[in-house]
């Protein structure tokens, strides 16, 4: 890969990561009127992230992950990811911490960043996966910030700075995937399937229950829009 392509990979990974603090900044704004619109918008943003996550699983992680492993290995990795995310959920619930959404966000951001780097190393396009990571990170950053919302503005600013620093994990793990893990396609397949299982668990456990509103029908369209982003990118790259 040319030097310019590596720079492009790093830019894509950085932009995808910066969607997290962008979502946090969006969460600080609570002046939308009327209030019903603000509530529907918040649920729609969550649905957008869920749609993008499912799109990443269905169009990228599973199709790429099953290429180099047996059926049994695919099952073990996929179910293992779901069980690992469930165990993390149980641990955080017992600790009564406000960081479950933050942990879920990092748990899918890191393996997806690795997948972004390995995809680039193997000559594949990074636009689709990078775009999906960004689209899902925006509502995840929004939700994680709201969950950890500090009471004073000074701490709020520090939390946003932390989100910005976490965005640097994107290019870091993309480089790890590009220079090292791309040499081990079976390992990469396992990581992708593990992430896919964990992501689907998170969608049904943490995100989908928060989308539903009684007698409101617009928020689910955010999920359709999120999946549509992946579908369009998949068709353009294919």
UniProtKB/TrEMBL annotation:
Signal sequence interval, chain numbering: none
Lineage of origin: Bacteria, Pseudomonadati, Pseudomonadota, Gammaproteobacteria, Alteromonadales
The organism's place on the tree of life at top rank: Bacteria
Cell cycle is among the record's keywords: no
Record keywords, A-Z: Membrane, Transmembrane, Transmembrane helix
Protein name as annotated: Divalent cation transporter
Transmembrane segments: 7-29, 41-62, 69-93, 113-138, 159-180, 186-204, 216-236
